[in-house]
Amino acid sequence: MAGAVVWASRAVEDVDAIASYIGKDSAAYASAVVKKILATTRLLEKFPLSGRVVPEVDDSNLREQLAYNYRTIYRVRSDSVLIVAIIHGKRMLAL
Prior knowledge:
With about 100 residues, this protein is an alpha+beta fold. Helix content is about 35%, strand content about 30%. The chain has a five-stranded mixed sheet. The longest helix is centred in the middle third of the chain and has 17 residues.
Protein backbone atom coordinates (compact mmCIF):
# COMPACT_ATOMS: atom_id res chain seq x y z
CA MET A 1 0.00 0.00 0.00
CA ALA A 2 2.97 2.34 0.36
CA GLY A 3 3.76 4.65 -2.50
CA ALA A 4 4.60 8.16 -3.54
CA VAL A 5 3.51 11.15 -1.50
CA VAL A 6 1.55 13.61 -3.65
CA TRP A 7 0.55 17.10 -2.54
CA ALA A 8 -2.79 18.69 -3.43
CA SER A 9 -2.46 22.34 -4.42
CA ARG A 10 -4.53 23.33 -1.38
CA ALA A 11 -2.00 21.67 0.94
CA VAL A 12 0.90 23.49 -0.72
CA GLU A 13 -0.98 26.77 -0.31
CA ASP A 14 -1.64 25.91 3.35
CA VAL A 15 2.08 25.41 4.06
CA ASP A 16 2.94 28.66 2.29
CA ALA A 17 0.32 30.53 4.33
CA ILE A 18 1.55 29.00 7.59
CA ALA A 19 5.15 29.93 6.79
CA SER A 20 4.15 33.49 5.90
CA TYR A 21 2.05 33.93 9.02
CA ILE A 22 4.64 32.56 11.45
CA GLY A 23 7.45 34.27 9.54
CA LYS A 24 6.06 37.69 10.44
CA ASP A 25 7.23 37.05 14.00
CA SER A 26 10.04 34.54 13.54
CA ALA A 27 11.65 33.31 10.36
CA ALA A 28 13.50 30.64 12.34
CA TYR A 29 10.32 29.24 13.91
CA ALA A 30 8.51 29.34 10.55
CA SER A 31 11.35 27.33 9.04
CA ALA A 32 11.27 24.82 11.90
CA VAL A 33 7.51 24.30 11.55
CA VAL A 34 7.70 23.80 7.78
CA LYS A 35 10.63 21.39 8.15
CA LYS A 36 8.69 19.35 10.73
CA ILE A 37 5.61 19.20 8.48
CA LEU A 38 7.72 18.07 5.52
CA ALA A 39 9.56 15.47 7.62
CA THR A 40 6.24 14.08 8.80
CA THR A 41 4.97 13.71 5.24
CA ARG A 42 8.14 11.94 4.07
CA LEU A 43 7.51 9.15 6.59
CA LEU A 44 4.13 8.47 4.97
CA GLU A 45 5.79 6.93 1.93
CA LYS A 46 6.81 3.93 4.04
CA PHE A 47 4.20 4.12 6.79
CA PRO A 48 0.96 5.44 5.28
CA LEU A 49 -1.26 4.07 8.06
CA SER A 50 0.84 5.55 10.86
CA GLY A 51 -1.47 8.52 11.42
CA ARG A 52 -4.73 8.41 13.26
CA VAL A 53 -8.08 8.47 11.48
CA VAL A 54 -9.41 12.04 11.29
CA PRO A 55 -11.87 12.16 14.21
CA GLU A 56 -14.56 14.28 12.53
CA VAL A 57 -14.74 12.06 9.42
CA ASP A 58 -15.74 8.41 9.37
CA ASP A 59 -13.22 7.27 6.74
CA SER A 60 -10.32 4.97 7.60
CA ASN A 61 -8.40 6.20 4.54
CA LEU A 62 -8.47 9.84 5.69
CA ARG A 63 -5.79 10.22 8.32
CA GLU A 64 -3.71 12.86 10.05
CA GLN A 65 -0.30 13.40 11.56
CA LEU A 66 0.53 16.21 13.97
CA ALA A 67 3.46 18.60 13.63
CA TYR A 68 3.65 21.30 16.29
CA ASN A 69 0.13 22.82 16.32
CA TYR A 70 -0.73 21.71 12.80
CA ARG A 71 -2.64 18.74 11.42
CA THR A 72 -1.38 17.19 8.20
CA ILE A 73 -4.48 15.66 6.66
CA TYR A 74 -3.89 12.95 4.07
CA ARG A 75 -5.74 10.30 2.11
CA VAL A 76 -4.29 6.80 1.75
CA ARG A 77 -4.78 5.48 -1.77
CA SER A 78 -3.82 2.11 -3.24
CA ASP A 79 -0.68 3.45 -4.91
CA SER A 80 0.06 6.74 -3.14
CA VAL A 81 -0.64 9.09 -0.27
CA LEU A 82 -2.35 12.40 -1.09
CA ILE A 83 -1.64 15.30 1.26
CA VAL A 84 -5.02 17.02 1.32
CA ALA A 85 -4.56 19.94 3.72
CA ILE A 86 -2.49 21.36 6.54
CA ILE A 87 -4.67 23.04 9.16
CA HIS A 88 -4.25 24.38 12.68
CA GLY A 89 -4.98 21.80 15.35
CA LYS A 90 -7.90 23.78 16.75
CA ARG A 91 -9.70 23.89 13.40
CA MET A 92 -12.15 21.27 12.23
CA LEU A 93 -11.60 19.82 8.79
CA ALA A 94 -14.00 21.28 6.22
CA LEU A 95 -14.29 19.08 3.14
